[in-house]
Amino acid sequence: MKVTVHRKAHFNAAHRLYRKDWSFEKNDAVFGLCNNPNFHGHNYELIASVTGDIDPETGYVIDVKILKDIIKSEVEDAFDHKNLNVEVPEFQDLNPTAENIAVVIYNKIKAKLDSKFHLEITLYETPRNFVTYSGD
C-alpha cells in the first residue's frame, strides 16, 4: 500500500536569469526583467513529497522529522537569504530557473533518502508559477 507524505518548506532567495555566453541584448530578449544585472528575489515555497510503503511497525512511510531535517540542511540552510548565482555552488554554471532549482533540490534531498522512496519536488516561484520534478 503506497502512501505519499508531503512536507512544505519556505526560503527566500535572489537570482538573475542569464547565460554568460550570450550578449546582454540576447539575455534581455529571452529573460526580460529576470535578466536584471542587480538580481531580483522570490519567496519560494517547496513541497517535498515522499512515496513509499507504510512501515507496519511505526505506521509511517517516513518519519516527517527526518524529512524536515533533510530539507532544513539541504535546502533552507543552503538557499535561504542567498543570491543563488553568487553564493550557491550548484548555480555557478547553471541558470537558476525554477526548473533547475527544482532539479538541484531533488538531487540534494534524494541523495539523503533511502532508495526505496519515490521523491517528487514541487517548487513555487510565485503563487501562480510553479514546477514539479520527480526524476522520472
From TrEMBL:
UniProt xrefs under Gene3D superfamilies: 6-pyruvoyl tetrahydropterin synthase/QueD (3.30.479.10)
Keywords from the named record: Lyase, Metal-binding, Queuosine biosynthesis, Zinc
One example GO MF annotation: 6-carboxytetrahydropterin synthase activity
Membrane spanning stretches: none
InterPro entries: 6-PTP_synth/QueD, 6-PTP_synth/QueD_sf
Pfam families per the UniProt record, alphabetical: PTPS
EC number: 4.-.-.-
Pathway in which the depicted protein is active: Purine metabolism; 7-cyano-7-deazaguanine biosynthesis
Cofactor-binding details, from the entry: Binds 1 zinc ion per subunit.
Protein name according to UniProt: 6-carboxy-5,6,7,8-tetrahydropterin synthase
Natural source organism: Winogradskyella aquimaris
Organism placement in taxonomy: Bacteria, Pseudomonadati, Bacteroidota, Flavobacteriia, Flavobacteriales
